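Quick review question:
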């Protein structure tokens, strides 16, 4: 059995379950949890924001038949975040509650790490992790964008992990890629379903977890996920700083992200192609630096 032996069946489970639930949601529950257009959105017709439910369900089903058993604290962090985010997809959850859950979810991931860190790492990683959860949500505002980042980002981390001999970490990445590919089938412009908070926040936490476990296991350095997910954190961070500097209410919803401004000028598909080029370029850079022993 190869390096990733035991992961083919779970990946197939992720695909089948994600596809089946997405089809069910679109055929029988299409009017459920609709994202209604407004002056801040990029879509013009109501679209269900339940795609993340199917993606996450597929990945959870796949993990259940996978060769690994995630630590209890790690599982608790994801389940807690998923529950609150799913409720937020149905009815508004106050920001203070969402933020508290984000903090707790990242704290549980840090607690579940196999090795202890120097004390100063914990506040740094806690803030970075909460920001990753939120920026993944912020960047999920255009058809195909978050799904593409998930496919390319986790495929890159999985490839590097596999090249370094970390088959189980590569397998987890493969499950996320499999679920995201199914989601992209329905989210590619013009999208018939959106990721929703349940999907975007969980994927953000998954990026945190895979990055930290990959770092601690020696699969790659922290520079690798920083480069791979640069298309997301650069846009979100620069937009936040710009809004703060000009005195805008930076915590409010808007459509001033670089990708949104680009989509309003040249269209969604053209912007998505540019974003795909950026994602692929950063991933190739990360893989190349790893091969050279520089990351």
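Suggested answer, residue by residue:
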């Amino acid at each position: 059995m190869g390096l990733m032996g035991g992961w083919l069946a779970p990946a197939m489970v992720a695909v089948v379950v994600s596809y089946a639930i997405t089809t069910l949601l679109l055929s029988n529950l299409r009017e459920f949890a609709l994202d209604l257009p407004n002056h801040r959105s990029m879509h013009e017709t109501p679209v269900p924001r339940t795609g993340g439910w199917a993606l996450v369900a597929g990945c959870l089903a796949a993990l259940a038949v996978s060769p690994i058993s995630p630590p209890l604290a790690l599982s608790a962090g994801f389940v807690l975040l998923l529950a609150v985010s799913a409720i937020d997809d149905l009815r508004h959850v106050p920001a203070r509650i969402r933020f508290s859950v984000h903090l707790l979810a990242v704290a549980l991931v840090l607690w579940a790490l196999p090795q202890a860190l120097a004390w100063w790492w914990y506040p740094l990683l806690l803030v970075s992790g909460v920001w990753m959860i939120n920026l993944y949500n912020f960047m999920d505002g255009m058809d195909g964008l978050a799904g593409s980042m998930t496919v390319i980002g986790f495929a890159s981390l999985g490839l590097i992990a596999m090249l370094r001999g970390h088959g189980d970490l590569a397998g987890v990445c493969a499950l996320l890629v499999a679920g995201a590919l199914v989601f992209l089938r329905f989210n590619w412009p013009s999208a018939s379903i959106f990721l929703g908070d349940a999907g975007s926040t969980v994927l953000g936490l998954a990026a945190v977890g895979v990055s930290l476990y990959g770092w601690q296991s020696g699969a790659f350095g922290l520079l690798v996920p920083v480069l791979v997910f640069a298309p997301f954190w650069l846009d979100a961070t620069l937009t936040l700083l710009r809004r703060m500097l000009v005195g805008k209410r930076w915590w409010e919803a808007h459509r001033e992200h670089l990708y949104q401004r680009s989509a309003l000028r040249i269209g969604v598909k053209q912007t998505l192609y540019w974003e795909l080029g950026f994602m692929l370029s950063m991933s190739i850079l990360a893989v190349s630096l790893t091969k050279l022993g520089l990351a």
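Why it works: The chain has a mean pLDDT of 94. The chain has twelve helices and two strands.
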